[in-house]
Amino acid sequence: MYKRKHRKTYARISKKAIQHNLKNEQARLGANCELFAVVKADGYGHGAVEIAKVARDAGVTGFCVALLGEALELRQAGIREPILILGIVDVAYVAIIAAEKLSVTVGSLEWLKKAKLKMKNQNNSLRIHIALDTGMGRIGFRTVSELTEAENTVSDSKLFEFEGVYTHFATADESDETKFNKQLEIFNKLINKLKNKPRFIHVANSATALWHQQIPTNLVRYGIAMYGLNPSGHALISPVSLEPAMELISELIQVKEIQPGDTVSYGATYEATDCEWVGTIPIGYADGWRRSLQGQTVLVDGQRCEIIGRVCMDQCMIRLPKEYPVGTTVVLVGKSGTDQVTMEELAEHLDTINYEIICGITLRVPRIYV
């Protein structure tokens, strides 16, 4: 959508970091366990197609997305490996799902029955993964009776291929395992009632794969950790090395000296108390660089520089330790000298999680792959 040649603010994505993170997880996989790369939300902001190609070359055997459109984007880019859609898709599109050989999540009997009617005149079967709500409270079957009826509906028809059953843990990234173990107990109770087990029985997202390796699963849905970020933030120490794949880079487009009493940005929320050098950076909240990042620091020449005044739509200002020339590199996320700004640091400043930061970097920011 946007080309780097028009702008020197960009996200630099390391293919080697993605490969490193996948290699570490592959070394931990159990026997007969497959690794699917989760590339929903445009590859967590890293670029779904590019990351899928890197992951495929690194040896993953399939992909997970949230939306039908995301799956079709991969197919159109030549990704022929299995793709599991984790979200609920409008039943009107089951013919497309079947024709593209995609796998789809089913979370209710109503959806399954409507899909059966829609599939009557189709030549392709619909690949089904039954979602079980064991405590997330989001999507999926909750009772044995519902699951039994769903299995019977799928098994009694050649229109469906019962490919998988899965759940999602709400607290796999927490030290207290009480709720996690309760969900696991419910999941095991439900799947033990299946008359015929499908090919895939899976429970492992990144957090489960990292901290609950002993849980039986034959498919790992590897998401945030593939991008080098800890699912728990700082709550738990990762058992493997995670290398962040995204850096956010910009430059100084104007540098000026302001005097005591001068104010900076909307609302005049920052007032200089001395003579200060101020640099302007061409990135703002329209790029996903949030307005509430006032007070956060970025790196110039390895030194921490505070964002002063409110972040604007397209620009923000920083206090410099001295005069720097226009064009000087500014590292908003990543390393400069001996220091580093991390996604976790931004998340803590914004009282959120690292997932939201990377997914929030908008398409105005070009992705450069190295």
UniProtKB/TrEMBL annotation:
In this chain the Alanine racemase C-terminal domain maps to 245-370
A Pfam family: Ala_racemase_C
Per the record, its GO cellular-component terms are: cytosol
- State the protein's name: Alanine racemase C-terminal domain-containing protein
> InterPro entries given for it?
Ala_racemase, Ala_racemase/Decarboxylase_C, Ala_racemase_C, Ala_racemase_N, Ala_racemase_pyridoxalP-BS, PLP-binding_barrel
Q: Which cofactor does it need?
A: pyridoxal 5'-phosphate
Organism of origin = Parnassius mnemosyne
Q: Where does substrate bind?
A: 138, 313
Task: Give the N6-(pyridoxal phosphate)lysine positions (modified residues).
Answer: 40
Gene Ontology annotations of biological process type? D-alanine biosynthetic process
Q: Which PANTHER family does the entry link to?
A: ALANINE RACEMASE, ALANINE RACEMASE, CATABOLIC-RELATED
